[in-house]
Amino acid sequence: TASPEQDLLNLHxxxxxxxxxxxxxxxxxxxxxxLPPDRAAATLAxxxxxxxxxxxRQFTPRQLAEYFRRLSPDSAADLLQQLAPARRRDVRAAxxxxxxxxxxxx
Length: 106
Known about the structure:
Layout: H1 4-9, H2 13-22, H3 25-34, H4 37-46, H5 52-56, H6 61-69, H7 73-80, H8 85-94, H9 97-100
């Protein structure tokens, strides 16, 4: 049988985001770190807006840029808006030019 951690990793991103938001911060951080980048990005895109700042704070601008690159421009723009202006600039600077200059990512 699969471990509880493996069961969580097999959940739909929306279900995983729901569970992630109920975990203590250190456990949520560890869970996101275990996910492949595509799954982490999809899961972050499903997190409730009020819970995003705390979750996004744990990542470096380069990590966030990698996750945002894997999302639709609208989803990436939504997540970028959850960051403080200085951090948003750092993340955009870490994004490939074709993503960071997209009008939807402003």
